[in-house]
């Protein structure tokens, strides 16, 4: 029968009691229970749901989506929301039983503890209470949501957050690379937005329509708006979840508008004037960077906000770093900081090496600005460079070509995750997050202190299966792309704390106490003499040189498809590839062939967890643990960087306890349904992925490592190397973590840009432009 009394039914489940459970997103925002005749039996959850902003009520739901009932008749409800990401459990009589909230945004992003009042934190849009004695936490309030058409600006659940004080008032600075908002924290746990600065892409991360207040202010001429909406409709109307396309269209729209002499007003400044936390047309100023000549509201990770509420934006372009400063001119009657475009000034314009990643900024307690690029440098509010520190591999992409970590070496520093006053002698200490899992402590006058955690590429210790307080984490890592985290000093006990992802505990924030930092002392002033003999070049040497060339010697007599170490001359440096990441990770490899088979050998591979791979999908073993890799261009010589027909990857590993060989053919004519390897940043399509059942793979465990030998019929590859020929390719070893469930290090002979271990699409791809040469002896 038709069921009435439902305003917006969404979820549906059948219970063991014979009743139907339906979630309703209407005004009642709860779950309704019906008998089989369609009669309402009872409701579950507070009528009207819980408050959207302010005090958090556990017996209220918000957007109840997935419903399930267990064997005891308890109802489990998963909510379509991220503030918090919640699953609640309800007794058969409808009473609230318990809830599970989590996880964080990517790698603990969206989490910050208030260092001035550490019993509370901001976690993915919620204010949470922290019980330090018992190690527990609970959601206390929802800080902010866009509950009104004018609620355009506020603290984002997934963005980076920092706490700032002005007297007794607490403020939340929240944002990302093209947006920052400042909100006042209220006693009920909510956050009232006061000001915001940014660029239009802030509105393009979802599939919502561009707000009318923004759309109608982009040009004075309505014809320009109609033209843009016709040519780039996705910018204005959204298009599902294809976010990258929407942003790309925005940049194309902007470039076209500039070329036509009609630049778009794509930057905005909002200051609340009436205290309602909502944007009115008279409060928002839209402007074009091209027309005004700046400021450029864009910066790496999060714009820097100084203790006096000045906002800094950093722009790296064409080898020039520009720093814009917008001072806070005071506070208005609504309690909002006053920012004026005419006060913005460029305080630094300096030539610096071309940067891959955007420079990130941070302000110390004195208002000086730290710029994270090459080199790491501190500048005064007036733009004077105070000090510099070597930083040759900054950011996510810089870390991909970085060597193993070493004392004093910064590997992929991302941004400052906090600071602490260490007393009169040491002063303020800052902490930089490293993209490969380390955390770096430096004094704000430019002295390196220490690295915390381990480089994740060395497969350090794992977390225990269950949470255990008091565990030592010295040998653990924050992991690759450890974007979240925080460093602070707790005023309650005076101790230093570090939070963020740790090893497998990636999508949560582990709070750890730092022991020993209180023993640090400055060395007395002394002279240090440096000479060219000590630092001949200031660069890290690479044993592979500028090119990778390997001589391949064909077998003089057939080996019958039986692989083994005797097929190779391991004593010849010219005929054996040798590469090292650190003392615990190195390998030797080569290949050869006879008239029917290709033979590959990986010799003396150093690995503390040899050939460990728990993956069950043969096509994705490169993401789940140990592998040996041979990549080849079977179409002959050529230095073209693009992938073409004949480019292959041969993967050798174990799958469900047995040796396996998997062949990836990247381009096969006539393929209509390639295998896809997708991630948030893209998709790699491989035309054919095949398990080679007639390959032989022999794995020999050794003390501290393994050797691997394999043979593959040349016919399966569709190739036969020619004596005297030159072929492009590479050899690689992929290392697992200690559990054999994910890769921690990709170490290749020729390609040095293999540091990325957090993206399926990128790791499935090959890069022929970075391959070496295999020269076949005559």
UniProtKB/TrEMBL annotation:
Keywords: Hydrolase
EC number from the UniProt entry: 3.1.1.17
SUPFAM superfamilies: CBD9-like (SSF49344), NHL repeat (SSF101898)
Any GO BP: proteasome-mediated ubiquitin-dependent protein catabolic process
Superkingdom of the source species: Bacteria
Root EC class: hydrolase
Molecular-function GO term, any one: zinc ion binding
InterPro entries linked: 6-blade_b-propeller_TolB-like, TRIM-NHL_E3_ligases
Tagged with keyword Hydrolase: yes
Protein name: Partial gluconolactonase
Lineage summary: Bacteria, Pseudomonadati, Verrucomicrobiota, Methylacidimicrobium
Gene it is expressed from: E3.1.1.17/gnl/RGN
